[in-house]
Amino acid sequence: MKTLSKKLFILCLVAVFVTGCGRVGYKDTREKNSRIMLKASSMLNAGDYKAAISLFSKAVEVYPSLARPHLDVAMLLQDHKHDYISAIYHYNKYLEMRPNSEKSAMIVDRIKQSERAFVTRHLAKQNMFGSSMAQLQEENQILVKKNRSLYKKVENLQAELSGINENIRNEYKASVVGEVNDTETKKTPVLKKDPPVKTLPPIEPTAPVKTLVANELDTNIEKVVTSPADIIVETLRSSPREPAKIKTGSSQIQTYTVKRGDSLSEIAFKVYGDPTQWRKIQKANRDTLGATGVNVKVGQVLKVPVP
C-alpha cells in the first residue's frame, strides 16, 4: 500500500508540472498572436532586425504585463546589436514573469553567454585604452621638451630686446641732455651746460622809444630762421647785439610788433637776452594767443612785461 501511495504522489507531481509548463507555453503563444507582436515577428522574418527590436521594445512599453516581448527583444539585442547589458535585463525580466517556463535553462545559459561577451569586450577596450594612453603620454613628453626649448628661446630674445631698448634710451638721453652712460668705465653722466644768458640793461623811463624796423633787428642775421633752436644757434654764431627797442605804453608793460621770422623765443631773446623767458610774453598775451598758444603772426602787437 505504501509503495502504491508513493507512485500515485509522484504521478500527481508530474501531472502538475506538465500542466504548468503547458500553461506557460500557452501564454507565450497567446502573447505572440497580439497585433504588435505579429508585426514585430514579420519584421524579424524579413531580416529587418532594427525595426523588430523597435517594435518588441514598444510592446514592452505599451503592454507591461506581457512577458514574451522581453524574451524576443533580449535575444535580438544579444545576437544582432551586441547590447549585452540590456539583453541580460530583459532575460531576467522574462524569468521574473515566467518563473516556471520550460525555457528557463536556455535563458540562464544565454545570460551567462552575454556576461562573458560583455567582459571580453570590456577588457579589449581597456587594453586599447591603455595602449592609447601610453602613446599619449609619450607624445606629451615630447611636447613638454619642445615647450621648454621654446621658452628658453623666448627668454633669450626678451633679454636681447631689453638690451636694445636700453641702448636706444641711452642714445636718446645723450642726444637730448648730453647724458653719457658708460657702463664699462662707470663714469658719472655729464650734462651739457646752457649757453651764457645775456641780460638787458634796465630801460630808463625818460629815454625816447624808437619804432622797431626789420632792418635794424636783423642786421646781424644772415638768414631767416623760424624754430627756437635755429634762432639760438644762429644768434650765438653771429656777433653780439643789443636788446631790441620796443614801444612802451606804461612803466611796466611795453609793446612789440611781430616781424617776419619772429617767434616767442626770438622775441624773448631780443627783449630779455634770454630765449627761455618766452613764457612771460605768452602769459601777458593770453587774451590773444590763448592759454597755451605760442603761434604769432607778422604785424601782431604783443604786450611785453618790462624786466
Please give a quick description of this structure:
The chain has 307 residues and is mainly α.
Q: Structural class from helices and strands?
A: mainly alpha
Question: Mean pLDDT, rounded to whole units?
Answer: 75
Residues in helices, as a percent range: 55-70%
Instruction: Note poorly predicted spans.
Output: 8-22, 179-186, 204-226, 236-245
Fraction in beta strands: under 5%
Structural commentary:
With 307 residues, the protein is mostly helical. Among the domains are: 14-102, Alpha Horseshoe (Serine Threonine Protein Phosphatase 5, Tetratricopeptide repeat); 214-305, Roll (Membrane-bound Lytic Murein Transglycosylase D, Chain A), CATH 3.10.350. Helix content is 63%, strand content 4%. A 3-stranded antiparallel β-sheet has the order 1-2-3. A hairpin with a 4-residue loop joins strand 1 (247-248) and strand 2. The radius of gyration is 56 Å and the shape is rod-shaped. 18% of the residues are buried. Mean pLDDT is 75; it is low at 8-22, 179-186, 204-226 and 236-245.
Compile the SSE list and pairings.
Blueprint: H1 2-32, H2 35-45, H3 49-62, H4 68-81, H5 84-97, H6 104-177, H7 214-217, H8 228-237, E1 247-248, E2 253-257, H9 264-272, H10 278-284, H11 286-289, E3 301-305
Antiparallel strand pairs: 1-2, 2-3
Helix pairs in contact: 2-3, 3-4, 4-5, 5-6, 9-10
Structural key phrases:
single chain, 307 residues, mainly alpha, Serine Threonine Protein Phosphatase 5, Tetratricopeptide repeat, Membrane-bound Lytic Murein Transglycosylase D, Chain A, three-stranded antiparallel beta sheet, 63% helix, 4% strand
